[in-house]
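hey m, so remember when u said the tokens were messed up on ur end? i reran from scratch. heres the input so u can diff it against urs
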Amino acid sequence: MNFLSTYRAQWFGNVRGDLLAGLVVALALIPEAIAFSIIAGVDPRVGLYASFSIAVLIAFVGGRPGMISAATAATAVLMVTLVRDHGLEYLLAATVLAGLIQIVAGLLKLGRVMRFVSRSVMTGFVNALAILIFMAQIPELVGVPSLTYVMVAAGLAIIYLLPRLTKAIPSPLVAIVLLTAVAMFFGFDLRTVGDMGELPDTLPVFLIPDIPLNLETLMIILPYSLAVAVVGLLESLMTAQIVDDLTDTPSDRNQECVGQGIANTATGFIGGMAGCAMIGQSIINVKSGGRGRLSAFAAGVFLLFMILVLGDLVSQIPMAALVAVMIMVSIGTFSWSSIKNLKDHPRSSSIVMLATVAGVIITHNLAVGVLIGVLLSGIFFAWKIAQLFRISSSLSADGRHRTYLVEGQLFFASSEDFMAAFDFKEVLEKVTIDVSRAHIWDISSVAALDMAILKFRRDGAEVEIVGLNQASETIVDRLAVHDKPGALEKLMGH
């Protein structure tokens, strides 16, 4: 009963705000869906149908209310080679398979991997995306009539100044409507949405991709499907985290994985390309007042209505109006405080953030940038933990028994310091290695412990290990070789 009431509130708790925000998002989706289709090398209707289908379906089955999903550049660029070499039908099949992979990922609860993405990586991801969004507008600002700049400036003025007077209607929607009306009334010669590509005039229909159902086909589409599934989930989960922060509400990441999979699988059967969450559109939605599932549903329905019923009118929207909206999104997305924090935050955190930005900007691939950031975060974390490791020792009164006290985390990054702390040339009868304040984590640390014990035994000392906690004792019992027959001979043989 609690689930149903929550689900109902996610749909109808903010009807007016969700409908208006959905309308703004739908207007911004049209040129982007067309552009992403062009990137992938397919007809504009493939991207438009995908944006409609994914937005509507994710409203029902997604795990993050208020987040917008549709056809995206991140997934479109991954399909370029497949379309060029094998054609549209293989793209549709790859979309279906990518969706199935995402459903499996959600059922396996792989949404939990977001815990390993640090705040520095998140900030780098957001900043890189803001830069990419702005860079995507540059072609619309180069080699164009000077009137275009006037229209963009007017659009930005409306977007930022109108909320000071009233917030009853989203300012981006007002900017789009007013600039379109002015351009049509005065007959301005400006680049419009219609110049991006022909809008479809029929509803999407169910179809099964016309491909051979054999192993060879699977081997062709599998690499693309895996890439799309991983990049799509990564971008969706990171966008969900951003919307969580903006709205102070939680999301269900595993449900979002399943939802993205269902949306992509179904979209492949109506002639659409794969997609995922869109951070730019999601921020437009939230800043325009969208909070619930209805906003994504409305965006999809309005999108289809506008391209089918109001296609002639929508095609007259000047690109300058949409460029103004996307510049607003870029400015709002960028974490400006991160620049000021560069000198205050730990150097390692700043390096991770900048490396993530650089990786995304250079490759235009969000997954690559995030992977670089996560790897660097792991390396810096391991280095910091290794610095907390130390060993002290005490010698008995008779000089024949030395006790080494190990403190900290013993793993691959600290195993070298572990070995360097022992004096194997000292003549002793007994050595005690006290690990009661330490934890043994991996095979590298077990191998280092083996080596220390065997070296002391080689020189005739008795070695005792004390203080192993249960987890450390388990891994040592399973992997250690110092008590196995022939271990000392093997060491001496080396």
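this time it looks ok to me. The longest helix spans residues 215-247. if urs says something different then somethings off w ur setup not the seq
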